[in-house]
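User: hey, got a sec? need Phage baseplate assembly protein W folded
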Amino acid sequence: MTTDTNSVRRLDKNHDWTFGQGMNNYATESESIKQRVQTRLWSFTNDWFLDLEHGVPWLELMGRNVDWSKLEKEVKNCVLRTDGVASIVDYSTDLDVDTRKLIIQIEYQDIYYQTNTVTYQGEV
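Assistant: Yep! Here you go:
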């Protein structure tokens, strides 16, 4: 069984690969792009030996005195470097200073003219 280069194995709610459903375990087109964007946002740069540029340099960006414009630039660049992303439509951040929870939402358009939103949640 082979898959095309635009498909990815679907992830379950725990972010583990899914198995046992044949081709139904693979996401294609817009769903594939959305999963790749989300996975890149969850990833740290220099963490995947096959592509050291994959992900976001979270450790560098999230220290003391966060440079929010640099963070936004890095996150947007990460999304735009994802195969299949045509443009970013909207970007927003929300920081709860009491809980130190950061939520980033990015709305983008893909090469299939679909608009999707991905969310990153972390702590600063």
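Quick note: The radius of gyration is 15 Å. Let me know if you need anything else on Phage baseplate assembly protein W.
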